[in-house]
Amino acid sequence: MPAPEAFQYAVLRLVPRIERGERLNVGVVLFCRRRRFLAARVALDAARLAALAPECDVAVLAPILENMAAVAAGEATGGPLARLDASERFGWLTAPSSTMIQPSPVHTGLTEDPAADLDRLFARLVET
To answer: Are 15 and 100 in contact (CB under 8 A)?
Structure first.
């Protein structure tokens, strides 16, 4: 069994109206440099969004989240940002933002399996 390695993660949050301070967790991005792992899982719960901000359009927000996951994965559909190296992509995805989709502070941990930890964090922090 491989030794645990340090990882960093942030929760992606949807903040529909900044003045209200309400937010909805919509994803997790996890980076483990030593394992060469960077990935994001995203999901937008339409019912929860409608309760929080009925004026927000899921059809507009969902592709933005999917693009963020594509950037994390380094997929061509992520555009020019997806061509950056993994640490730069993680930095871009977790940079403070004044847009509707904002990252939490970056947290750290140890992992033997970054993909499994991403799934665990996503289930705990995003899924209802």
So the answer is: yes
- Smallest CA-to-CA distance from 28 within 78, 99, 110, 103 is with 103
Q: What count of Cα atoms within 13 Å lies in the side-chain half-sphere of residue 115? A: 2
73 by Cβ neighbours in 10 Å (0-12 / 13-18 / 19+) ranks as middle
pLDDT of residue 20: 85
> Per the confidence metrics, is the pTM higher than 0.90?
yes
68 in helix, strand or coil?
A: helix
9-36 residue pLDDT tens: 999 999 998 888 889 999 999 999 999 9
Q: Who contacts 66 (Cβ-Cβ below 8 Å, separation ≥6)? A: 42
Q: Where are the beta strands (DSSP E) in the chain?
A: 5-14, 24-32, 37-42, 101-103, 107-111
